[in-house]
Every structure is written in structure tokens, then in C-alpha cells.
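Lab notebook page, bench 4
Experiment: in silico fold of construct C2
Operator: M.H.
Input chain length: 200 residues
Purpose: comparison with the prior construct
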Amino acid sequence: MAHLDYSQDYILEDDYVKLMPLKIEHIEYVLNVSKEHNLWTYFLEKGNGLKNLTNYIASTVHNRKHQKEYPLVVFDKIKKQYAGTTRFYDYSSELKTIKLGHTWYGKDFRGTGLNKRCKYLLFQFAFETLELERVGFGAHAENKVSIAAMKSVGCKEEGVLRNFMPSLNGKERADIILLSILKDEWFEKVKTELKAKLTK
């Protein structure tokens, strides 16, 4: 079994998209995307604007050095533009599990099939290269678009973390919806179905 090597610069790509390790120098390439209205509504960490984005990227790059997260920047090969970022986190080689999240794309890249292509490459890496048993996800309960996107790439809803975080109004509490894909599901069904969606 291969282990996630935080010191290695993994490149995941096909003819349409390329994912590579997120680095400080990528700030200038995703800055305009990060300023888009409503992009950060459901995020605890905010990356809107130069100061917030610098802190956001510096934090996850720091966490990579300490083997807590593995952040990736997404490049759209068709548009020849950087689309956003995503990351692996909570990796356990003993349990053979990992989580995938903190994903955001600019409005010009949503609904284009980019997310499905990214997820295919990320799942393939997790299940076939790292040979993991499970990829987990979480989403703010009110983030219906994100939850629908996860289900569209094969994720199954499995539970709720009640009152997990402050609600959007800051006065109450909000739930987190938990989802996942298992290794057997990937090989038996999800991989084939997701690949079919990419060819449409």
C-alpha cells in the first residue's frame, strides 16, 4: 500500500484539468476568483481578497508541512485559467481513510463538468494509488448546491453533526451533513458512472 507523501508534489491531470500542489505563489492566479460575491458564504475560513486569501493559502501550505492537509490548485486546461482550490485532509494510513473538501471554484468554472473531472482524478488517486478504503466529506446543511454536487459524483449521505458550527446569521447553530464514498463503491459503480458523465 502506498502512503500519502506530503513532501511529494503529486500532479493529477487529464486532457481538461490539472491539479497540482497549492503554493504561496498561486495567490496571484486565484485572487480574482476569490473576490467573487457569495463564494465564501458557507466557509468558516474566508479567502476573499488579498489579505484573507494570503492567510488562507499560507495556513494550508503550513499544514501540509506538518502533514495535516494536502492542498491542490485547479487549472482548467481548456480555458487556460486557474479555477480554484481543493484539499485532502485528516489522512490516516492506519485506518486507510481520508477526507476531501475546502473546495471552491470561480463562477465561470461551475456547471462546466470541471468539478466532476477533478473528483474523478482525486478519487482515482485516493482509491487506486493510495489504496484507501474511504473518502469522507462534509457540508454545511444549508449548502444545498454543494451537497447536490457531492451526490452527483457518487457520494452517499451518511449522517449529521448537529449544531456543529455557527449558523449564517451568527446567532444560532448549524448542522453539518456527512457524506462518503467507499472503495468497493468506487470500483463497483461510482467509477464507471462518473466516467460516463465525463464523456457526455
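Observations: The helical segments are 27-34, 49-65, 114-129, 144-152, 183-198. The beta strands are 12-13, 17-21, 69-76, 81-92, 97-105, 134-140, 156-166, 173-182.
Next step: discuss at group meeting.
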